[in-house]
Amino acid sequence: MKLQFDGQQLRVRIDEEELAVLLRGDAVDAATHAGDAFTLHCTLQLHAQAEARMDGPAERCQLHLPEQAVRELASRLPTRDGLQFALPGATPANTLALLFDVDVRDSARRLKAARHAAPKP
């Protein structure tokens, strides 16, 4: 799982193996160690609600994505389109845009290799 913050936007990108973990009901975890200063942990999981949610302190955040939306995205793969959510803040300026997508480069490479390996008629 890759997390990228840019101002009031958070991009969450997972690979297809991590997507399979989510779809079977398990969580995906990521940790970044800032030397000896601190460690940032993030857990991503699906939930039954229609909206995305973020909980916990900054150093141990939990992201909850709508299961139905993620399953629908999974059914459309491979696609460059991801999911977008707004996590409201105390004011409109504090709203965090959450972008979620699945890196499908691995399956695209496998598909391309399979096409090249297929016998020509």
TL;DR of this structure?
With 121 residues, the protein is of the alpha/beta class. The chain contains 3 helices and 8 strands.
Q: State the secondary-structure class.
A: alpha/beta
Q: Helix coverage percent of residues?
A: 10-25%
Distance between the termini: 41 Å
The largest sheet has its strands arranged as 1-2-8-7
**Helix run count:** 3
Q: Structurally, how many domains make up the residues? A: 1
General form: globular
Under CATH, the topology can be stated as Gyrase A, domain 2
Task: Outline the fold blueprint.
Blueprint: E1 2-6, E2 9-15, H1 16-23, E3 28-34, E4 38-47, E5 53-55, E6 60-66, H2 67-75, E7 83-87, E8 96-103, H3 105-117
Parallel strand pairs: 2-8, 4-6
Antiparallel strand pairs: 1-2, 3-4, 5-6, 7-8
Task: Kindly list the characteristics that best describe this protein.
121 residues; 4-stranded mixed beta sheet; Gyrase A, domain 2; single chain; alpha/beta; 43% strand
Describe this structure in words.
- With 121 residues, this protein is an alpha/beta fold.
- It contains three helices and eight strands, in the order ββαββββαββα.
- It has one domain (2-117): Gyrase A, domain 2 (2-Layer Sandwich).
- β1 and β2 (9-15) form a beta hairpin.
